[in-house]
Amino acid sequence: DVQCFDMLNLGVSGAFSDFCDYNFRVQFAPKFPYYVRMDFCYLNLKMTENSSITVGKYAELIGGYEFDAMPIDVYYWSAFCRSLYHGYGVGAILNYNISKSQKLAFQICESPVSPERFSAIAYNLYWNGRFAPFWKTIWSVNFMGDKSNSIMNFIALGNRWEYGCLKLDLDFINRMPLGHKNFPWNYSVVSNLAVEFKNFNICLKGGYEKNSIIYSYAGGGFEIFPWAHKYLRVHTMYYREFEQNTHIFNIGVSLKFEYKNN
Which of 29, 102, 177, 245 fits 98 for a cystine, CB–CB 3.0-4.6 Å? Predict the structure, then answer.
């Protein structure tokens, strides 16, 4: 199975004042069927030194480092991430910075487990922090309305350990109907290991997921950055889905342009 991805992401961010900043990103897909999509578009209003409100279309606040990554940097998505109907929803977020490395947020927005936009609501409690300088976390507890008008509960625990050139991500996501007593019910365990050098990265990824069926996969490859500032990236990846006996090759080139107006 050979996959080819062709897209252009245009992102713009800035500030109207010291208390109000904005950010949006548009995605263009120059292949059939051609589309233009607004990934996110929001305003962030600063209330105090440590608190703010974000309004608009923003990423769903679900724990885990795979879900948190920019889509262009993910070469193979877990079944959990692919099962979500959308990764960005319209709503509002209350943010509070406990410290420079600890952030709490509460979000009310469209539910990503409902196929119809604005048909169900998600309530997300989110913590982005760390236990130690080498151990970072993105954890969340989520209550999401689905298409059957019931509530799904996610417990998503994303962990990242960094040491020198090594970076290991380990995500655990449990999913169950609200009030269900058997834990874990449906779940995903996803791990990603990166070995980062100056102009060359080795990437390995694997996962084991249960969602009425067992789904497991593993693979990896490498990234090459020919230029020192890493605006150009060439990657080659291979993954195997074991139960489906599917082989996936992903080869591509990414080019980043950045302009700053101070």
Answer: 102
